[in-house]
Design a protein that fits this description.
45% of the residues lie in helices and 14% in strands. It contains seven helices and four strands, in the order ααβααβαβαβα. The longest helix is centred in the middle third of the chain and has 34 residues. It is globular.
Length: 176
């Protein structure tokens, strides 16, 4: 698929078929995430792959009952690894760059999934402590995004977007 076609095909899908995601496709998604740019190429994040139904259920509960998380056959949880960044970049690396690294990697994974005929939805609404416990991480590592992945059982229409004239500011905020 062409990149701009991937952009136009991406949707937030919240219903998945029970069909298993093939290991080859999952590996390609993980390779895409691994290719994402990161501050100083430190890759200050980690990805937890969750296939186990009981763990997916715990993630669903941690995300305030968003049941599509448990429905998806595979869920990726992207976590910051701030120590990887803080050694070179101090507080800014710890608090910002590791977060940026994890979220860029999640975006690459999301777009790769679309290219492979799969569907996702970015989940950021969850109880950090419950997710951390479910996937076995502890501070300073912190979960920042949950990405359910599967074959779509729904095909949502595109959502409206802001106009570029409202979104883009030339040189300074407020100037168009």
């Amino acid at each position: 698929m062409e990149l701009f076609q991937v952009f136009s095909m991406r949707r937030s899908v919240r219903a998945y078929q029970s069909k298993k995601v093939e290991d080859e496709k999952l590996n390609r998604i993980l390779e895409a995430a691994n290719s994402a740019p990161s501050a100083g190429n430190l890759q200050a994040y980690g990805i937890v792959v969750v296939k186990d139904a009981s763990t997916r259920m715990r993630l669903m509960e941690a995300a305030w009952g968003q049941d599509f998380i448990a429905q998806a056959p595979v869920v990726l949880v992207f976590c910051t690894d701030p120590n990887r960044s803080s050694r070179r970049y101090g507080i800014r690396g710890e608090s910002l760059y590791s977060l940026q690294d994890a979220t860029i990697a999640c975006t690459y994974a999301m777009l790769a999934a679309v290219d492979l005929g799969l569907a996702t939805v970015w989940v950021g609404a969850f109880n950090d402590d419950m997710v951390a416990e479910a996937i076995g991480v502890s501070p300073p590592v912190r979960p920042v995004a949950i990405l359910p992945i599967g074959y779509p059982a729904e095909f949502p229409a595109p959502t409206p977007r802001r106009s570029l004239s409202d979104l883009v500011h030339i040189e300074r905020w407020g100037k168009h």
